[in-house]
Amino acid sequence: MPSVFRFRLIPFIATLLVMAIGITAGQWQTRRAAEKTAIALKLAQRATAPRLAIDARPLEIADLEYRKMSIKGEFVPNWPIYLDNRPYQGVAGLYVLMPFRIDGSRMHVLVARGWVPRNPLDRKKLPVIPTPLGMITVQGMARRNPGKLLQLGKPDALRPGAILQNLEVARFAQASGLQMQPFLLEQSSALPDGLKRDWPLPSIGIDKHRGYAFQWFALTAVAFIFFVVTGFRRGTK
User: pTM of the entire structure?
Assistant: First the structure.
């Protein structure tokens, strides 16, 4: 007896839903892989560029992202910010951020000073971190932001000592009233503060995104094949 495809509405809708999810997720992972590939290329190009000495002139982030730079000035210790859910070697911890006033001006740079472990008994108890006083020189790499995480619920108010998931430099400038350069500096120079400065590369995870994209597209193909095969089986029966 010849096979006949038997169409059924509910399995068809379910198949379309699974395929839509698979295609959307696969495309998102593909875009992320492409973005990180572009970042890796830019990192390679700018790694050999000479270190920039930053002064008070307003700058553009597009010209500076991933450039190594040096800034002379002093920390503003009354405006620390802590970014949560930043693990390091499997240990829960925080990124410590603090504005840094450029010498001889009112212009500031938001500096990611480093990583510190969280208190395992009291998540709200913040560590005491020594901050150098007076003029120093800080070196590091310019970033657009410290990396974005999924925000669950409403973020806390931006105030000194706040523990946040994400932070944009423009938002910090508005809340603090400080004049800010439009980038974040991931500090690499050593200071006697006990902070870890082993920053993850922004381009890491390209192969992971490609692998996830393949899995999502494979799921889409399997859902389509399953719908067609079971439709013919129903028709034959």
Answer: 0.74
What pLDDT digit, counting tens, does each position of 38-58 carry?
777 777 777 778 888 888 888
As a 3-state breakdown, the chain gives helix, strand, coil percent values, each rounded to 5, of 35, 25, 40
Asked whether residue 71 falls in the same domain as residue 33, the answer is: no
Q: What is the pLDDT of residue 44?
A: 75
How far CA 99 is from CA of 17, 63, 78, 86, 169, in Å, comes to 47, 21, 9, 20, 10
- For 139-158, letters b (16+ CB in 10 Å) and e give ebbbbbbbbeeeeeeeeeee
* 223: containing domain: 1-50+203-237
Structural contact between residues 169 and 214, judged by C-beta atoms closer than 8 angstroms = no
Secondary structure element (H or E) that encloses residue 223, with its range: helix 206-236
Q: Alpha-carbon torsion 47, 185, 192, 116, what sign? A: negative
How are beta strands 81-83 and 163-164 bridged, if at all?
A: parallel
If asked whether residues 183 and 121 sit together in one domain, one would say: yes
Q: 68-75 and 52-54: which strand pairing?
A: parallel
Same domain, 91 and 20: no
| Residue 46 backbone dihedrals phi, psi, to 5 degrees | -95, -5
Whether 59 is covered by a domain: the verdict is no
State whether 10 and 82 are in the same domain.
no
* CA distances to 75, 126, 146, 165 from 45, in Å: 30, 38, 21, 30
Residue 58 lies in a domain: no
